[in-house]
Design goal:
Layout (H helix, E strand, L loop, with lengths): L4 H9 L5 H14 L8 H16 L12 H27 L2 H25 L21 H18 L5 H25 L6 H29 L8 H15 L7 H21 L2 H22 L6 H21 L1 H9 L4 H8 L2
Length: 352
């Protein structure tokens, strides 16, 4: 729950707090939350600069860097990582600036796949037909070494610094890994002389990505349970897991009415999970899935029906009515849903 200074002043007007108490309470909250990534101009500059630097060494890496060769790429990555680590430590110890320090430490994780790509290129793993930019564009099982190295470095830095932003590159590396894992398993199965045609290979890739997404969501849930501090360590892991799971699910079994029915039920379940865990990512993607189902009904099944817009309007009003009932009984419903969660996680959700 976010409390503003105007709300404290309103509490003073209603004689709930004195003016002195409100001022002290506000200063106390400001001091407690000064290292949290709140939306202000300073933090915008921090994250903008950090994302530009991260993008420069990942998504926007151009082909000119390939001329440096494998050893050149590896050396520059290591040099950048040492500089980022030194600056991060300096800002932490000298000025206690947690947010810019966390961005600099995150930069080290982003540099890891580039460093290992350079090392692999020097060892002759990659031919001239591949460049580092392909890492963010094409699926290939040979990226797995770079991804495993990135996960290892990320876990080491997370254990050392405990910054929530460090989970961002870890989460998306895990997502990349789920995409690259399927071709690796496919090659492995082919080595065992298993009969896998192209059609079953596509289904196999989707199944790997789907179950991998569920696994990542499970890991995020465990992190949520074990987390004892105010930092939200699970957010980025939830995001990557839901993207992997929901994105794959949205491309599977949606060629008939029964498939859409089960798809709609799963998205409704995601809404309930989002409400129980107080996680918007489940609600957003669940809502997108339900909208997709309604779009299918509109353009496929009821394309020429005059009554469909009226029926859809009725459904919309019915959902609003459910929202009104939910609001009136929100405390009891939330208490019931929270009863399924572990005690420590339940306490944190109640005070979000």
């Amino acid at each position: 729950m976010k409390i503003t200074y105007k709300q404290l002043l309103s509490a003073v007007e209603h004689k709930i707090l004195t003016g002195n108490q409100a001022e002290k309470l506000w200063l106390f909250w400001q001091e407690q939350n000064k290292h949290l990534p709140i939306f202000n101009f300073t933090n915008i500059l921090y994250y903008l600069g950090g994302l530009i630097a991260i993008g420069a060494m990942s998504l926007f890496m151009n082909l000119g860097w390939e001329r440096l060769g494998g050893i050149g790429l590896f050396s520059i990555s290591v040099l950048y990582a040492i500089i980022a680590l030194s600056l991060g430590e300096f800002l932490l110890k000298r000025y206690h600036l947690v947010i810019p320090a966390s961005i600099l430490i995150t930069f080290i994780i982003v540099l890891t796949p580039l460093a290992f790509y350079g090392l692999e290129k020097a060892l002759g793993v990659w031919d001239s037909s591949y460049s580092y930019r392909d890492y963010h564009q094409f699926i290939d099982w040979r990226w797995l070494v770079m991804e495993l190295a990135t996960v290892f470095v990320a876990i080491c830095l997370i254990c050392r610094y405990r910054f929530s932003f460090l989970f961002m590159p870890l989460a998306f590396t895990l997502w990349y890994m789920s995409l690259d894992l399927a071709p690796y398993l496919f090659h492995l199965l082919n080595n065992f002389k298993m009969d896998i045609n192209d059609y079953s290979y596509m289904d196999f890739r989707k199944c790997v990505s789907l179950w991998f997404g569920l696994l990542i969501i499970g890991i995020a849930f465990i992190i949520d349970i074990k987390n004892k501090c105010t930092h939200d360590f699970a957010f980025w892991i939830y995001l990557s897991g839901v993207i992997s799971f929901w994105g794959t699910l949205s491309s599977m079994y949606l060629d008939n009415e029964l498939g859409h029915f089960f798809y709609c039920c799963i998205n409704l379940l995601m809404l309930l999970v989002g409400a129980a865990l107080a996680r918007r990512v489940f609600v957003i993607f669940g809502s997108l899935g339900i909208m997709e189902c309604l779009s299918y009904l509109s353009y496929k099944l009821f394309n020429d029906s005059l009554l469909f817009p009226f029926a859809l309007t009725t459904i919309g009003l019915f959902i609003i009515a459910i929202g009104i009932v939910w609001q009136r009984h929100e405390k009891a419903i939330n208490h019931y849903l929270l009863g399924f969660l572990p005690k420590d996680l339940r306490k944190r959700i109640e005070f979000r």
